[in-house]
Write a sequence for this structure.
């Protein structure tokens, strides 16, 4: 006769999910430096006597948050939400079919005390297709000061020296001394390689003249639940680090020049943690631009 005792069922438990957080931050960051950064940037003066405002060109894929980044930096200084650079409010500045920015326009950054001595130049968003979005030559010409403010981007043909909006003899004040690529963290892994190819061509061309490039990685909160719950987990998040490594590998930009931020999107008040990330990114951008301006005679 068989035993009356039944063998207990052994249930296999699934392993716990991997920890999304690193034990130590992979980048040291002082979350209490907001006021020091503001003061330092407010007191900044361009290193070249012939330049009153350092220009910074902002490029990026449609929907990555170019214009929102400019507005967010402005907000960090003003202590209130700014929306001077128009975004696609119908889509909430998420990926849409066409770029909302059509013309080259400069935006000075304001503090509560004065206008700051740097200007962001906003351009039409990039698209993977050859005849869509801003053209490679237009971006390169805009960096070198050949494109006049107000120029309406033509998706089918780049600006040429024959056009009225072409500046044949730009001075230092017309030129941009840093190119900022805005890339969305939540979709970077799906970005079309053709778009990265465009950015790499631009990078190669302007590097010949020593123009530094910075990646501002936006939408970090949408890319990582850990960061969405606590922005101060930015530099312990494995997911954010992985996305920054991907950007560096795809574009050849060193990690030191990749700066994660959160743009203001649905907030109605500013936040110190959002501000300090934005201000630190701006400090890095301005320092790189001014270093290049100081080395103008070498190029």
């Amino acid at each position: 006769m068989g035993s009356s005792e039944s063998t207990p069922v052994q249930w296999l438990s699934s392993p716990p999910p991997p920890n999304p957080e690193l034990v130590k931050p992979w980048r040291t960051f002082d979350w209490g430096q907001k006021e020091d950064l503001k003061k330092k940037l407010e007191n900044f003066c361009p290193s070249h006597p012939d330049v009153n405002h350092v220009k910074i060109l902002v490029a990026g894929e449609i929907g990555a948050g170019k214009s929102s980044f400019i507005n967010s930096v402005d907000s960090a200084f003003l202590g209130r939400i700014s929306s001077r650079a128009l975004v696609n409010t119908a889509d909430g500045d998420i990926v849409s079919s066409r770029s909302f920015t059509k013309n080259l326009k400069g935006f000075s950054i304001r503090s509560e005390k004065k206008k700051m001595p740097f200007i962001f130049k906003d351009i039409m968003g990039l698209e993977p297709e050859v005849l869509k979005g801003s053209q490679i030559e237009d971006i390169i010409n805009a960096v070198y000061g050949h494109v006049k403010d107000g120029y309406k981007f033509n998706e089918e043909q780049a600006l040429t020296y024959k056009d009225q909006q072409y500046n044949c003899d730009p001075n230092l004040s017309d030129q941009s001394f840093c190119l900022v690529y805005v890339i969305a963290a939540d979709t970077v892994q799906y970005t079309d390689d053709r778009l990265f190819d465009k950015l790499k061509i631009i990078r190669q061309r302007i590097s010949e003249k020593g123009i530094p490039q910075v990646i501002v990685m936006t939408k970090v909160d949408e890319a990582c639940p850990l960061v969405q719950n606590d922005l101060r987990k930015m530099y312990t998040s494995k997911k954010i680090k992985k996305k920054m490594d991907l950007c560096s590998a795809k574009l050849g930009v060193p990690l030191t020049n990749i700066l994660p931020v959160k743009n203001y999107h649905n907030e109605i008040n500013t936040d110190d943690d959002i501000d300090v990330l934005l201000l630190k990114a701006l400090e890095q951008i301005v320092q790189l631009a001014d270093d290049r301006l100081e080395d103008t005679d070498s190029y």
About this structure: The chain is about 30% helix and 15% strand. Residues 180 and 214 are 5 Å apart (CA to CA). The helical segments are 34-42, 66-78, 136-143, 193-207, 220-223, 225-229, 238-251, 272-294.
